[in-house]
Automatic annotation (TrEMBL):
Protein name: Photosystem I assembly BtpA
Species this chain originates from: Microterricola gilva
Record-stated family: Belongs to the BtpA family.
Classification via NCBIfam families: thylakoid_BtpA
């Protein structure tokens, strides 16, 4: 019997358990930290994308990481337009699959940009349920996400959805396995991202195994805290990893991504995958 989740996932990421390199954009127009020069933002994003690609990552995810404090949902045209320009330049400089994440939970902006720059996936922090975040209470809008995809001809764009997103807590606790299944079967997620409590923390291996057991047919991707020390162990369980925190020298999120750190992580990750397959 065919597995529709695996088919869609491998259609973008081939047969790999992908390492998805994070391109953390400098602050965009409208954000408090914006430098006033969009070319600076573009240059840094392209440089990080190039470094990560040279380090061997399998895909890239462009995110407005430095736009804090974040809107709960970003609709401001100056931010969305600038992010599209930056993402387009990243796409022009690499052949890797490309994803978009506009924080905090800006699914319409992410999908619109993805459609405009021919990106293959988005990350969405809250697809189902509701969470208390540092931006306040954010409700799910899975019903709108699915309909907007259809309206723009974007049904091919994968939704990689966070389960129990970082920097947040659910308003109501529900069994993790039930949430994961609902996100897939009722919410329209194509894969699940599992993170720790914040950007620097990976999820526990116990929680990872719990989610994998609950949804064995769907990809589960690590969403935070990945460094070389975690690569081999987590690779034996997960189906992919978002790699951003560990790509920064001294774990300083303001620094450029390091090719050497990416190469080390990717090598250990693939070694863990080979061990699992042996």
């Amino acid at each position: 019997m065919s597995n529709p989740y695996l088919q869609r996932f491998t259609g973008v990421f081939a047969d790999k358990a992908p390492v998805i390199g994070m391109v953390h954009m400098y602050a965009l127009p409208g954000a408090p930290g914006y430098s006033g020069d969009l070319n600076d933002v573009i240059d840094r994003a392209v440089a990080d994308a190039t470094s990560l690609a040279e380090g061997g990552v399998d895909a890239l995810l462009v995110e407005n990481f430095h736009d804090y404090p974040f809107y709960p949902v970003t609709i401001e045209p100056e931010t969305v337009a600038a992010a599209a320009v930056v993402a387009r330049e990243v796409a022009r400089h690499t052949d890797l699959p490309l994803g978009i994440n506009i924080l905090r939970n800006s699914w319409k902006a992410s999908l619109g940009i993805a459609a405009a720059v021919d990106a293959q996936f988005i990350r969405l922090n809250i697809l189902t349920d509701a969470s208390v975040t540092d931006q306040g209470i954010i409700n799910s809008e899975a019903h709108l996400v699915a309909r907007y995809k259809k309206s723009i001809g974007g049904e091919h764009i994968l939704t990689l959805a966070d389960l129990l997103t970082k920097h947040a807590r659910p308003i109501v606790e529900r069994p993790v396995g039930v949430i994961a299944a609902d996100m897939l079967h009722r919410g329209g997620a194509d894969a699940i991202i599992l993170a720790g409590d914040d950007t620097s923390m990976p999820p526990s291996l116990d929680r990872l195994r719990q989610v994998k057991d609950a949804i064995p047919d769907a990809p589960v991707i690590l969403g935070s805290g990945m460094t070389a020390q975690h690569a081999a162990t987590y690779a034996e369980v997960a189906d992919g990893a978002v790699f951003g925190y560990g790509s920064k020298p001294d774990r300083n999120m303001d620094l450029p991504a390091s090719t050497e750190l990416a190469r080390e992580f990717v090598g250990l990750w693939r070694g863990g995958k080979e061990k699992k397959a042996a």
